[in-house]
Design goal:
317 residues, alpha/beta, Rossmann fold, 2 domains, 9 strands, globular, binds phosphoric acid mono(formamide)ester, binds norvaline
């Protein structure tokens, strides 16, 4: 059976090693320059929504690993016009060694994976953004390798990025509190899954409607846009987020060593103030860079399990 990455718990058992491998690739450039596990492979990436980070980090990361990246914009391919997802999956599996897919409905990436004979990576759906979570926890691990002091606070919408953030916390045993306005809670099935995983790891997961309560004592303060791609007609939604901006006043409740995180793109002045975005404790651009290293690690893991032996030797695990 082919392994896919649709949400971050799909790689739960090896998540910590995947993150360590991503950091090793970033730090040891002498090693990573010669590491070409995708040599001779072609990886296709389908986009139904715009992207800066995901597209560029996948293209450059695949190239660095010796593979050929192919970006397939929805307007240029038959998908959704004259061809079904299932047929597209079967055709592309004949040419390609893996597929990434940025789509609207999460059920679409599930359907692509169901009919694909090569690994499918969710490059953002309305429900999950696992590649973002991999980069986020890599960035946290760079600061606190065993997550001993890490306490995560989310302030904002109960959206796709929060879903994989809470799943990642549950896998790694990191405490996480999310503050969301009433009516904008994360999906119950994702919360239930995260709570179940957290029972084994010991992570404390908690929901509140009070941003100050979530931020109190936290070391990582994370937010995202209030209106996600595909929700542009829900402009009224913005009014529910009064008091949910991450600004210097809110951060007074956080741990003194707080770091600010955002998946980007940021809507400055809405969910975050300029002062916080540009603060020396803002690590948003490290996060953005780490998309590439984290995805290189995930691609190696999903496309060349033989490389596992190399990892084990390199990391002494
Ligand atoms: N964070 C993220 O996925 O960014 P893009 O939409 O630019 O890919
Ligand atoms: N929640 C945002 C994330 C963008 C990277 C969206 O889905 O638009």
């Amino acid at each position: 059976m082919v392994d896919h990455l649709l949400s971050i718990d799909d790689v739960a058992d090896d998540f910590a090693v995947i993150l360590r491998w991503a950091i090793a690739l970033k730090q040891d450039t002498e090693f990573s320059e010669d590491f070409k596990p995708l040599d001779g492979m072609s990886i296709g990436s389908i986009y139904e929504k715009p992207s800066t980070r995901t597209r560029v980090s996948f293209e450059t990361g695949i190239h660095k690993l010796g593979g050929q990246p192919l970006t397939l914009l929805k307007g240029d391919i038959q998908l959704g016009k004259s061809e079904t997802i299932a047929d597209t999956a079967q055709v592309l599996s004949r040419y390609l060694d893996a597929l990434t897919y940025r789509c609207f409905a999460h059920s679409d990436v599930e359907e692509l994976a169901e009919h694909s004979e090569v690994p499918v990576i969710n490059a953002l759906s309305d429900k999950h953004h696992p590649c973002q979570a991999a980069a986020d926890f890599m960035t946290m691990m760079e600061k606190d390798p065993e997550f001993k002091k890490t306490r995560v606070a989310w302030v904002g919408d109960g959206n796709n990025v929060l879903h994989d953030l809470m799943l990642g916390c549950s896998i790694l045993g990191v405490d996480c509190t999310w503050a969301v306005p009433e009516g904008f809670e994360p999906d119950e099935d994702v919360v239930a899954k995260a709570m179940e995983i957290a029972e084994a790891s010991g992570a404390e997961l908690r929901q509140t409607h009070d941003p100050e309560d979530a931020v109190s004592g936290a070391t990582i303060i994370y937010t995202d846009v209030f209106v996600s791609m595909g929700e542009e007609d829900q402009v009224d939604k913005m009014t529910a987020f009064d008091g949910f901006q991450v600004n210097m006043e809110l951060l007074e409740s956080a741990d003194d060593n707080w770091s600010f995180m955002h998946c980007l793109p940021a809507h400055r002045g809405d969910e975050v103030s300029d002062e916080v975005m540009d603060h020396k404790q803002s690590i948003v651009f490290e996060q953005a860079e780490n998309r590439m290293w984290a995805q290189m690690s995930l691609l190696t893991y999903l496309c060349d399990m033989g490389a596992w032996e190399t990892w084990a030797e390199f990391l002494e695990i």
